[in-house]
Design brief:
Blueprint: H1 7-13, H2 17-28, E1 43-46, E2 53-56, E3 62-64, H3 78-89, H4 96-103, H5 107-127, E4 133-141, E5 156-164, E6 170-177, E7 183-184, E8 187-188, H6 190-200, E9 207-211, H7 221-238, H8 246-261, H9 266-276, H10 282-286, H11 292-306
Helix pairs in contact: 3-5, 3-9, 4-5, 5-8, 5-9
Length: 307
């Protein structure tokens, strides 16, 4: 994928469905068609559908252009999908309301497209572990609301980890919500720190520092600053996010941060992941675990007992 100067330039380049089809075909099969069933290299193209269908000339398996991608099952044109991906690759990202106005869709359709693109970002983030010199620190989404130990429903404790280079600069960032089972009110348990390391840090890493306390003297402030920036970005672009979908937005922030640090073509990398990541279905999305209602009830019960 080329670098693009602006959205208008991009839209002119991909203003036809055929151009989008060619780009997606190349992203899926950069060395030419390869049957997912038998790995045969030749196929017949069936063009009687809105999007091409590829029939293997050896085993006769038929493969849709969008099967196995985040686009699978969509009725939205690839032109609008490409525009959505470009906007998500921009530094500020985009909201579902803005996307709906640009591509002329309903809010629900735009919201689902946004989350499918974030799903590709999350899959990309999970592939690479932190390594080298690693620092992990307590963080929070939402301004701390209480001087007490009780956590307000709008406060979401985080653990953020980073790979640090010899110049004390962050080269790779991960920011994760902390599961309820690893929280005691607003405190992260040692088990929460160990789980973060086991899931997100390369096992061969020898130099790891984990700080789970809010006010420890060992805090690593550059990580705290990144958590603050993520919160500011989420609140500015999306007007705040609840705990149910917060992780997807944190993954988007980290994806953009990490790609920028590497001076990568963010659109090209994101498009590749969109073409190689299986889709996120609507029932899976809306049925994500949400502990916010339980937390809210617990919070007000604790305040009542505290007098």
């Amino acid at each position: 994928m080329d670098d693009f100067l602006d959205f208008e330039h991009f839209c002119k380049k991909y203003d036809k469905e055929e151009a989008c089809i060619d780009a997606l075909f190349f992203a899926r099969w950069p060395e030419g068609y390869c049957c997912p069933r038998c790995a045969h290299r030749r196929c017949y193209v069936i063009r009687s559908r809105r999007l091409p269908l590829y029939e293997c000339s050896q085993c006769r398996a038929q493969t849709s252009l969008i099967s196995g991608t985040i686009f699978e099952g969509t009725r939205t044109s690839l032109i609008h999908w490409f525009q959505a991906i470009f906007l998500h690759a921009a530094p500020e990202g985009t909201s579902a309301i803005r996307l709906a106005s640009i591509i002329g869709s309903t809010y629900k359709t735009a919201w689902l497209i946004c989350h499918k693109i974030r799903h590709a970002m999350s899959s990309s983030q999970s592939e690479e572990l932190l390594s080298g010199l690693v620092r992990v620190n307590w963080g929070v989404y939402g301004r701390p609301h209480n001087p007490t130990i009780y956590r307000h429903p709008q406060e979401q404790p985080l653990l953020a980890g980073a790979s640090i280079d010899k110049n004390d600069q962050i080269t790779h960032l991960k920011i994760m919500q902390v599961a309820e089972e690893h929280l005691i009110y607003d405190r992260i348990t040692p088990a929460g720190g160990r789980e973060f390391v086991s899931r997100h840090v390369n096992s061969s890493t020898a130099d790891i520092s984990v700080v789970i306390q809010k006010f420890s003297r060992q805090r690593y402030f550059p990580i705290i600053q990144r958590c603050y920036q993520a919160s500011q970005w989420i609140n500015h672009i999306f007007n705040g996010i609840g705990p149910k979908h917060l992780q997807a937005y944190l993954d988007q922030f980290c994806f953009g941060f990490n790609m920028t640090k590497r001076d990568e073509n963010i659109f090209g990398v994101l498009f590749h992941h969109c073409a190689s990541t299986t889709t996120l279905k609507y029932p899976t999305l809306i049925n994500r675990k949400n502990n916010s209602a339980m937390l809210k009830n617990d919070y007000f019960e604790l305040l009542r007992k505290a007098g």
